[in-house]
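User: Hey, my collaborator sent me this sequence without any context and asked if I could get a structure. I don't really work with proteins. Can you help?
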Amino acid sequence: MNWIWQTIGVILISICLIDLYLTVLYPRSGKSLLSMQISKLLWKIFCLTSRIVSKAQQRSLLSYCGPTVLVVIAAFWVTLLMVGFAFIFLPALGTAIKASNGNTPTDFITALYYSGYCLTTLGMGDLVPQTGFYRFLTILEAALGFSIFTLTLTYFLSVYSSLTRRNTFALSLQHRSASKGNAVEMVVRLGADGNFTGVRQEIEQIAQDLLQLFESHHSYPVLHYFRFQKAYYSLARIALITMDTETLIKSALNQEKYRFLINSTAVTELEHGGLHMLRELSNYFLPNEPFSNKNHLEKEWREWYYYAVKRLKDEGIEVNSNLETGADCYVALRSRWNHYVVAFADYMMYRWNEIAPVPDNFDNL
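Assistant: No problem. I've predicted the 3D structure and written it out in structure-token form, which is a compact way to encode the shape of the chain:
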């Protein structure tokens, strides 16, 4: 019977170490053993709980999911390692591991107590290993405990560093669009008075920031569950502004005058980098394949395009000479990415009007 407990212990320790290795030392989405599943489960629990509270409470509640996921994953690693070693130490109580004074208890709680002492490197306490093998196991658990605490702290710092960069990028897009939260205002300011000279470098920087965002979420999937109350911090808003900016540049601007920008590597990188990010992350995070509802939304997209063209013209920017051809191009380009953005907004429980706020003068133009 003793070998069964020790086999269970070895299995639990192996699960812990493999998950820790894949999550911290080889951080790629979809590669963790259990951490990703824990993250998704906790998000579902938060979402279900948020449905029974008020809207104001819902926003606040969901914002705690990310930090909670980090704490639960860290606790999971520590608990799994401590329980695993407890199962290995259990058969040795009273023989290879004895109390320094009096009789040695042989129950599982005592084994867990001894394992916890070793894991937290507090010393031997009142239980002492008597054989070389269990002395080695005691040292091994202490070393693993120290390593886990160190790696966990490093992981936390990496996650919050990436989160800071993501939030900085999100705020940058928000302010570049004059806090309107849409790509039209972004393009208007990129090409103030119709001058897009030198803007390729700025677009290239946005594309680089977008790729860095993708790699951050790819390396630290827990970032996805940091859901802030302000919608402009969301992945959906970031994707909407960047992808719509690229789409408007390629469809709404005058094709001859601004060919240098439309066909530039900067705009191409923004387009393909954004699509790559949306497709890859949707495979890891979204529970279902995003559904493309192009036909249903085509009228809405055309109205948005017409608004964008008039807004650009009002700011002295030359637009596509053929309005309907430009609108067709816009619809075709947007149909490639819009369903991903909508799916991410739904999954993170944002209303669409939070992600894509309608300008005050939209209905008047």
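In plain terms: The longest strand covers residues 97-99. You can pass these tokens on to your collaborator as they are.
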